[in-house]
Design brief:
Layout: E1 2-5, E2 13-15, H1 22-43, H2 45-49, E3 53-60, E4 64-70, E5 76-82, H3 90-108, H4 122-135
Antiparallel strand pairs: 1-2, 1-5, 3-4, 4-5
Length: 136
Amino acid sequence: SVVCCPPQNYPLYIRSVPTENELKFHYTVHTSLDVVDEKISAMGKALVDQRELYLGLLYPTEDYKVYGYVTNSKVKFVMVVDSSNTALRDNEIRSMFRKLHNSYTDIMCNPFYNPGDRIHSRAFDNMVNSMMMQVC
């Protein structure tokens, strides 16, 4: 599951595979946004000094691992990965977040996109789908 949220914490983009547990993913994501906010406030001034912030593993559950990332403009990305997937390393998760960030930047540069609207981009969807296929 991949989620992109602005500083106001309403989702701009949610994508989950498989879709049958989508409601559970929504709950997990909203819970993890609170953890992201706590980590950001704990970092304080150190956050301002960094260009981007990979938060790493926010918290593990029995079924999932939840990772977080925040941009310099306080846009939050959350990724939920199946706990049984032990092949993913920290640097691969970080790389995926960078790809998400770059694709989000491309969307923001589109003159027809209104900041704060839900993301409806075929290019962004394709990038997320290819990332999810790589993980699954």
